[in-house]
């Protein structure tokens, strides 16, 4: 059942005054408690709980705050709960008494992440299917809350520019299977043990023959953890304890996702013609004050420009009127130029003739701006390109050539590759009146002034990766990636808001 309060409150003990001594007024967790009404979480998750079955659930605002702390700390579920026991800032944020310990079993946080925001069930064939996914709704809500707060504080202009870009995040498993991930983590754990006691090599569980079965690897890892638990000497060492907790969490995630040979929702994306990644993209729009106003998460192969219209609408819905959108060449495709023109918004993206693919459907070939090549629906990149036709009569096209050997065996070849063909090409028209108009706009001083803000979003992408380890997903699947993105961008925005607010106060004092 869903416990509903307007906002969490303290049950003050005789030690409660410690918070006034130890937690300063400008502490971000104190400010977050005082300025953000988290009661929206009750409405958001009301369909994920039963009101007439089972025990009363742990307060969902409390559980959600734990999720924010997990994003901030980067700890495993068990590691976080142990940290809360000794961290006064965390206890204050959660509404706990200073002396309170053993707040919840870590498994409750695990279940909250997996079963309340995104939920999987097995169909009649035993295959996992997603039946609940509120991850994007969570991301939209959290960003909207922070933009509202920025508007109330007067630190974001309601008429603004939108700076757009995407940042990539590697899959939890990279391009390896869950079994390989288990092998890697258990190996790291054994190395730490051997440094402390080399004789443990003789006591380790016997490895199974290389069957390739993930079940065998799970069994071995459980035996390894049982051995270390029974030994008792190593569990008190923080680095080893956290490694053990991480291994347990991976085992549990793998059991939930056992049908996956790898993260099946992750896809290969290309950063340049020669480099690729396996994972997801987070598409971001932010204001010139560097406050994120909208975001979406897609698989790695998706084209950046396809997300512009949705990001724009989400930003407008959050109360920001856009006068211009600033981005790189990925956002200069014809449909985006026309959309901005119809919406009365200036499109400040430098035209690339290779992006001029007109009004194409999203399921067709996508242009990769970094590699300067097209990518087919199967994720294969063109190997070369050439211009054909006449520029004078307007028939000139750019022709992209694909590796025909890959096409022959591609599962998506039906309707795309003709059996027996010696080549596979994809052609795009180079110019249109829309693009010519954009070329003229690129020459203006106004364009250059707007475009000078673009560097800000590259710094923002670096920040979320550097501060919140957003370069790798902490969960399997697109839902898990979106939940990670939602909490990360929420904390990033609040950090920026508080910084701008402090600067504003300082200027007033100096005057």
Describe the structure.
The chain has 511 residues and is an alpha+beta fold. The protein has three domains: 17-122, no CATH class; 156-168 and 266-474, Transposase Inhibitor Protein From Tn5, Chain A, domain 1 (Alpha-Beta Complex), CATH 3.90.350; 178-256, no CATH class. The chain is built from 18 helices and 13 strands. Strands 3, 4, 5, 6, 7 and 8 form a six-stranded mixed β-sheet that branches. It has a three-stranded antiparallel β-sheet with strand order 11-12-13. A two-stranded antiparallel sheet has the order 1-2. A hairpin with an 8-residue loop joins strand 11 and strand 12. The longest helix is centred in the C-terminal third of the chain and has 33 residues, at 478-510. Residues 1-8, 52-56 and 355-362 have low confidence and may be disordered.
How many individual helices?
18
What is the CATH-assigned architecture of the largest domain? Alpha-Beta Complex
CATH topology of the largest domain: Transposase Inhibitor Protein From Tn5, Chain A, domain 1
pLDDT < 50 stretches: 1-8, 52-56, 355-362
**How many domains would you count in the coordinates?**
3
Secondary-structure-based class equals alpha+beta
- Helix fraction bin: 40-55%
N-to-C span? 53 Å
Essential attributes:
alpha+beta, Transposase Inhibitor Protein From Tn5, Chain A, domain 1, 3 domains, three-stranded antiparallel β-sheet, 13 strands, disordered N terminus
């Amino acid at each position: 059942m869903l416990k509903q309060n307007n906002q969490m409150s303290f049950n003050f003990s005789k030690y409660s005054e410690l918070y006034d001594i130890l937690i300063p007024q400008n502490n971000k967790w104190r400010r977050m408690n005082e300025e953000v009404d988290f009661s929206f979480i009750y409405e958001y998750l009301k369909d994920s709980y039963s009101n007439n079955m089972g025990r009363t659930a742990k307060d969902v605002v409390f559980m959600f705050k734990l999720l924010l702390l997990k994003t901030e700390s980067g700890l495993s579920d068990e590691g976080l709960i142990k940290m809360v026991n000794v961290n006064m800032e965390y206890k204050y944020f959660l509404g706990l008494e200073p002396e309170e310990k053993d707040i919840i079993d870590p498994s409750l946080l695990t279940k909250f992440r997996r079963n309340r925001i995104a939920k999987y069930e097995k169909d009649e064939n035993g295959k996992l299917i997603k039946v609940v996914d509120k991850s994007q709704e969570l991301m939209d809500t959290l960003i909207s809350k922070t933009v509202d707060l920025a508007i109330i504080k007067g630190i974001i202009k309601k008429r603004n520019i939108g700076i757009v870009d995407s940042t990539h995040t590697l899959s939890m498993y990279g391009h390896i299977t869950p079994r390989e991930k288990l092998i890697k983590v258990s190996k790291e754990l054994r190395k730490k043990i051997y440094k402390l006691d080399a004789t443990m090599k003789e006591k380790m569980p016997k490895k199974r023959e290389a069957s390739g079965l993930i079940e065998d690897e799970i069994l071995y890892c459980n035996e390894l953890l049982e051995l270390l638990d029974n030994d008792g000497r190593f569990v008190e060492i923080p680095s080893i304890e956290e490694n053990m907790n991480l291994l347990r969490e991976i085992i549990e995630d793998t059991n939930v996702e056992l049908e996956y040979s790898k993260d099946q929702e992750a896809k290969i994306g290309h950063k340049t013609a020669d480099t690729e990644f396996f994972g997801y993209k987070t598409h971001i729009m932010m204001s010139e004050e560097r406050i994120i106003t909208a975001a979406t998460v897609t698989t790695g192969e998706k084209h950046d420009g396809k997300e512009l219209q949705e990001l724009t609408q989400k930003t407008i819905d959050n109360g920001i009127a856009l006068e211009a959108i600033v981005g790189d060449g990925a956002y200069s495709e014809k449909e985006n130029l026309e959309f901005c023109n119809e919406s009365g918004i200036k499109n400040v993206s430098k035209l690339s003739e290779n992006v001029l693919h007109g009004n194409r459907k999203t399921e067709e070939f996508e242009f990769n701006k970094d590699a300067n090549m097209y990518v087919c629906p199967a994720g294969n990149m063109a190997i070369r390109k050439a211009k054909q036709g006449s520029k004078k009569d307007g028939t000139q096209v750019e022709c992209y050539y694909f590796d025909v050997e890959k096409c022959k065996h591609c599962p998506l070849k039906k309707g795309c590759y003709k059996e027996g063909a010696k080549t596979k090409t994809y052609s795009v028209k180079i110019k249109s009146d829309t693009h010519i108009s954009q070329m003229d706009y690129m020459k203006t001083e106004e364009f250059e002034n707007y475009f000078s803000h673009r560097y800000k979003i590259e710094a923002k992408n670096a920040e979320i990766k550097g501060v919140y380890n957003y370069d790798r997903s902490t969960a399997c699947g697109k839902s898990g990636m979106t939940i990670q993105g939602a909490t990360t961008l929420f904390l990033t925005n609040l950090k920026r808001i508080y910084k701008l607010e402090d600067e504003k106060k300082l200027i007033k004092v100096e005057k």
